[in-house]
Design a protein that fits this description.
single chain
Amino acid sequence: MERTWKPTTAGILAIIAGAIQAIGGVVVTVAGSLVGIDIGMGWLGGLGVPLVLLGIVAIVGGIYALKRRVWGLALAGGICALVGPWAILGILSIVFVAMGKNEFE
């Protein structure tokens, strides 16, 4: 089977989007905690936790896309990369994973 650029590109895009998402989630968590403590709403720090979790799934999915293993997880990584202004990276990742489906084990 011939290996194309599609899963590799999808993996790189998902990893980049996931890293941005996870870092953004950490920033939101820290800033929300600090501001929340000052105004008596400490729960604001929890708003970044979903971003961190989605970012981790996007990174893991990107790694699986690079390795061309577990197509569903690679696709889930692209889907999790859709949250935020970097959503175009997630969209492209999904498209490239779908186009390269026959390359996955």
